[in-house]
Amino acid sequence: MIELRDVCLELGGQTIHRNLNIEFEPGQHYLLTGPNGSGKSTLLALLAGLVKPLSGTVSINGQQPLNTAQCSRAMVLQDPASQIIFPDVDSEISFGAINAGFSREKTQRILKGWRETLGIDSQDLTKKQQPSDFTGLLSGGEQQLVVLASTMSGAPDLLLLDEPTSMLDDVRTAQFMDAISILRQDNASLTIVHATHDSRVAESGDVCMEIQGHNIVTRNVSRSPLAEKYSWPDIKLRASISKRHFLAVTNVGFSYTNDSFLFRNLSFDLPSGDLVCIFGGNGSGKSSFLELLFGWANPSEGKLKFADNVKIGIVFQRIEESFFERTVTRELAASLKLVDEQVKADMIKETLHEFKLTSFAERDPVRISGGERRLLAIASIAVTEPDVIVIDEPFSGMDKEHCLFLIRLFRQWCETGKAVIITASRADHAFVPNARVIKLHSEQCVEIPRSDLDKMGHSPICE
Q1: Strand-by-strand arrangement of the 435-439 sheet
Q2: Average pLDDT, the chain
Q3: Can you give the pLDDT at residue 232?
Q4: pLDDT tens for residues 102-122?
Q5: Is 2-229's fold the same as 245-461's?
Q6: How far is CA 383 from CA 308, 349, 354, 386, in A?
Q7: Sequence ranges of the domains in the chain
Q8: H or E stretch including 375?
Q9: Residues paired with residue 137 on neighbouring β-strands, in sequence order
């Protein structure tokens, strides 16, 4: 049993947890939930031995300190690319088993088993390359699968998961839950602590721990926030004050190779006031399409044309790569280098308030939560006032409050003459109010008719 006694935790000079007293029983799957910035990742880092408490003790079976000799631990971070070590998929998945000291034969069996369980042998994952090829070419969701497989291949006693399904589509999430079931069958004493906002995984948990301020409330999963079903509010979009045509996409297709397309026949127009969602599973080409918009790659077929003098701003999925400054304020200021100093100061103050980042103004971007970092990345683009704002997976890792904030923000942008393009791997993140939904498919991309969207109603907010 892992015990926390009178533990206090601090991050960036701010107290995150105070006087925590928690017990984690062997064989239990704990779902850790709470608002963005409440300290879920910090608590996982404590259990992983990555941070030390300001005060209090962490022990296993009454012994201190908690170390790998007493309890082998493995952790999946929010950003999967940050913990990928090897350039090829097979080596990455095998690393956990090799690090655990397993034989070559056992490692090969484990590699084969996890690839099959998590669908890493499937055609969807091999459209860009074979499984033995470059991990850097995988999508964010595919990288998350590979990291999950690598982490689980070492058969740890304590498995720490930080938003492990935030980038996964519905099929991959189901495969992840199957993998968790297999792990628990193989190791009845396995303890899992799983930080999440995702109600899709609620049924896999035994106990829900909800962070409320400096306290943690333990409750049955069926009575936890993860079991509640929310719906997008009925947010009506008023007509845009401007009528411009920003973009024409005509029969666009993209392929990394000559014989296998990620998607083909993608066509749509983007006038001012429109919110468009590019929807597709992991590896369907959503992020690749955004690279086409930004000019980092060229279409393999078809044509993509912006109108003259259109200013575009893009927030990519890996938000960590977009930060260069040591404080939130300086990060926003870096986007406004050509603006008068007094005007710049006013714009930064207004943006911090609008995005609810005022209390983090002097914090390092790496010292705020994943959800708050995503807001900062969006704010850093929005403050430049582009005509077209493109955001890759904006709801990934966001709690309900932040999801609703973004929906209202998109409406505001559209009503003031801008256009917004977002991507989504999950249906509940795609069918948002006022959005035109275009589904990517390898051979035929289709826009889902508005009448069909209306019949579906407003989808639930699951994360």
Answers
A1: 312-315, 388-391, 419-424, 275-279, 435-439, 446-447
A2: 86
A3: 66
A4: 999 999 999 998 888 877 764
A5: yes
A6: 21, 11, 11, 8
A7: 2-229, 245-461
A8: helix 370-382
A9: none
The candidate with the shortest Cα–Cα distance to 398, out of 444, 442, 463, 354, is 463
Structure-block tokens of residue 195: 């930080």
Average pLDDT over residues 424-446: 86
Alpha helices in 265-399 (DSSP H): 286-294, 328-334, 341-354, 370-382
CA–CA separation, 59 vs 99, rounded Å? 24
Calpha distance 51→11 (Å, rounded): 10
Is 197 within 8 Å of 33 (Cβ atoms)?
A: yes
Query: For residues 378 and 412, what is the distance between their CA atoms, to the nearest angstrom?
Result: 14
**Does residue 303 register a pLDDT over 70?**
yes
Helix (H) or strand (E) holding 447: strand 446-447
Cis previous bond, 233, omega within 30: no
Residues for the chain: how many in total? 463
Contact call for residues 258 and 403 (beta carbons, < 8 A): no
Whole-angstrom distance, CA of residue 393 vs CA of residue 377: 12
Backbone region of residue 302 per phi and psi (left: phi > 0; alpha: psi in -120 to 50; beta: other values) = left
Q: Using an 8 Å Cβ cutoff, are 373 and 365 in contact?
A: yes
Architecture per CATH, domain 245-461, reads as: 3-Layer(aba) Sandwich (3.40)
314 has a pLDDT exceeding 90:
yes
pTM assigned to the model = 0.86
Parallel/antiparallel/unpaired status of strands 73-76 and 245-255:
unpaired
What DSSP string describes 252-281?
Answer: EEEESSSS-EEEEEEEEEEETT-EEEEE--
**Neighbouring-strand partners of residue 63:** 60
Q: Parallel, antiparallel, or unpaired: how do β-strands 2-11 and 207-212 relate?
A: unpaired
Structure tokens, 365: 């971007």
User: Is residue 93 a contact partner of residue 120, using CB atoms and an 8 Å limit?
Assistant: yes
Token digits of residue 424: 């989504």
- pLDDT tier at 318 (50, 70, 90 boundaries)? confident
Lowest-confidence segment of 177-186, 196-205, 239-248 by average pLDDT: 239-248
Fold of 2-229: Rossmann fold (3.40.50)
Amino acid, single-letter form, for residue 406: L
